[in-house]
Design goal:
By secondary structure, the chain is an alpha+beta fold. The protein is built from 17 helices and 24 strands. The protein has three domains: about 110 residues, Alpha-Beta Plaits (2-Layer Sandwich), CATH 3.30.70.20; about 375 residues, FAD/NAD(P)-binding domain; about 30 residues, no CATH class.
Length: about 600
């Protein structure tokens, strides 16, 4: 990099600390307007919206559940079951941004059936799609050319005896069918975009998103207002880093006293492999190569019992990584080229791809308050995930069921201090459940990897913690928020990744094509920026534009802005697969993910 270019980038960084008013005129000329979404550019101040009818249709129900994943569906089902047992009739409504139930679920998972056993004791007779019991477990440490087996002891978190390899999207779709049979109202393709509040500040419900807005933020002739759903209690089951859950946490200060949540990004592909290589029920996990010792992560490979020889392969990278040159997507592609891994895929066909952020913070990072006036958080919205198990679906289901029990108690007679009903017993129910005891046992596993020896020290320390079963008299802290972990690019070794061979490893855009992602092109980008200058002035200047690499869908791209060599950020929002990584890893927390028009996004459809 030339000295002149370095000086130019330094000047842009220094400019971040000058008063906004002083540099607003020059910035407006230098940087094109990127964000046109109404959450950043209020419509009340836009002349184009003055004559538009903004009235919403309103419906009132007893319980609104935001998100139709395993947690949301389990909450809806349990609420209707309990009401029926008490001879009561209640309205339960689930709003789901995917066009069909299960459509946004990234499939290929190992599920502990403990919560399903409780929700539907006769689920096998009912035809629940759990067809592949785990038959064999393998856990290994990968070197660049070899594999070192790691023993799996019975009862340890990595032990999958009694679990099932599933297509999670299929299971969620089945849960949706059971919910509808019980009378739950499900609205797929309706994304909740706004939290509504009573005059006393308690949550009143949610509003679904408006449609018919042009890319420049103006109303189209087809503009239609979303609807309001008012409820006695609202349950947020959006999954990891839900945008409304994030707002609720800030509004009610739910994270006061908690450690910052830390995350990983999980990338996944579905393959049809050669029949002779297929072993239904085989579960494999690895750590080590290709990641360096200071980057947390590993792989999984699950063989499903399907009509065709199908496997789900994936790779998880902790988003507290330090090197801005790292690309989680390319690390995943490189992993598949390992000499002891690639053989599984040779001669096979990749049929699907996707990515999702996952919670890794554990007990320390749970909100100090799980409830608020008018509702509660469940599942991954709250952070319930067991990191060494790499499982959270059974926690999502159980927390949804416990929330439903508490909500029924509140709306059936508990005295309330606010207009919105608070499920007061929910936190205690969680603390008395296996969710809390499980997370307490493994609370020190993830922070163990922040040590001078990295992975090697982490294996020893986490092994001791698992052996102790959570009885150690200390609780370790995380290193800090993931967005603060990056080092300047000048201090890190640039990573040169091999070119894809288009047989085992692939490029980003051909992978995105397999997600079925679909966004209306003429709409405001749902990846909003609080400040359009920060990407170039800060992220590109200090970190060489890390959003180009941490995004697993090619959404962010730096392109020439003028003939003078200045750059600008281009947001390819139509590529977004709703993983939320940018919302988490952006160094200045300048990127905010909001729901696109109509929900949009990938169409995994159970994959």
């Amino acid at each position: 990099m030339s000295a002149l270019l370095k000086l130019g980038r330094l000047a842009r960084v220094q400019k971040l600390f000058t008063p906004a008013a002083v540099r607003s005129v020059s910035d407006a000329a230098k940087y094109p307007k990127i964000t046109t979404h109404y959450t950043i550019c209020p419509r009340e101040k836009d002349e184009r919206w003055k004559e538009v009818d903004m009235e919403r249709f309103v419906d009132e129900v007893d319980i609104v559940i935001v998100g139709g994943g395993p947690g949301g569906m389990s909450a809806a089902i349990r609420a209707k079951q309990l009401a029926a047992e008490q001879g009561k009739e209640i309205r339960v409504c689930v709003v789901e941004k995917a066009a069909e139930v299960g459509g946004h679920i990234l499939s290929g998972a190992v599920v502990d059936p403990v919560s399903l056993n409780e929700l539907f004791p006769d689920w096998k007779e009912m035809g629940a799609p759990l067809n592949t019991p785990v038959a064999k477990d393998k856990f290994s440490f990968l070197t660049e050319t070899g594999r070192l087996p790691i023993p799996i002891f019975k009862g340890w978190p990595m032990d999958n005896h009694g679990n099932y390899v599933v297509r999670l999207g299929h299971l969620v779709k089945w849960l949706g069918e059971q919910a509808e049979a019980l009378g739950v109202e499900i609205y797929p393709g309706c994304a909740a975009s706004e939290v509504l509040f009573h005059e006393d500040g308690s949550v009143k419900g949610v509003a679904t998103n408006d449609v018919g807005i042009a890319k420049d933020g103006s109303p189209k002739d087809t503009f239609a207002r979303g609807m309001e759903l008012h409820a006695k209690t609202t349950i947020f089951a959006e999954g990891c880093r839900g945008h409304l859950s994030k707002q609720i946490m800030q509004q009610f200060n739910l994270n006061e006293g908690s450690q910052p949540q830390t995350y990983g990004i999980g990338l996944k592909e579905i393959w049809e492999i050669q029949p002779e290589k297929h072993q239904p029920g085989l579960v494999e996990h690895t750590i080590g190569w290709p990641l360096d010792k200071f980057t947390y992560g590993g792989s999984f490979l699950y063989h499903l019992n399907e009509p065709t020889p199908t496997v789900a392969v994936g790779f998880v990278v902790g988003l507290d990584y330090q090197n801005p040159w790292l690309s989680p997507f390319l690390e995943f592609q490189r992993f598949k080229t390992h000499p002891l891994v690639r053989g599984t895929f040779e001669g096979g066909t990749r049929i699907a791809y996707g990515a999702r952020a996952i919670n890794e913070g554990g007990l320390q990072s749970l909100p100090s308050k799980l409830t608020f006036p008018g509702g509660c958080l469940i599942g991954c919205s709250a952070g319930f995930l067991n990191v060494p198990k790499i499982k959270g679906s059974h926690y999502a289901m159980k927390s949804g069921m416990l929330a439903a029990e508490s909500v029924l108690e509140s709306i059936m007679g508990e005295s309330q201090e606010t207009a919105g009903y608070t499920p007061k017993s929910y936190p205690d129910k969680i603390k008395n459940s296996f969710i809390w005891s499980d997370l307490n046992k493994i609370r020190n596993v993830r922070p163990c990897f922040h040590n001078p020896l990295g992975l090697y020290g982490g294996l020893v320390l986490s092994g001791f913690s698992i052996f102790m079963g959570g009885r150690e008299p200390w609780t370790l802290k995380h290193a800090g928020p993931d967005n603060e972990s990056l080092k300047p690019a000048s201090q890190c070794q640039q990573i040169v990744y091999p070119k894809p061979d288009n047989k085992i490893s692939f490029d980003l855009l051909s992978s995105v094509a397999l997600t079925g992602t679909n966004h209306e092109g003429d709409q405001p980008a749902h990846l909003t920026l609080k400040n359009d200058c920060i990407p170039v002035d800060h992220n590109l200047a200090l970190y060489e534009g890390p959003e180009q690499r941490f995004c697993p869908a090619g959404v962010y791209e730096y392109v020439p802005n003028d003939e003078g060599g200045n750059m600008k950020l281009q947001i390819n929002a139509q590529n977004c697969i709703h993983c939320k990584t940018c919302d988490i890893k952006d160094p200045k927390q300048n990127i905010n993910w909001v729901v696109p028009e109509g929900g949009g996004g990938p169409a995994y459809n159970g994959m």
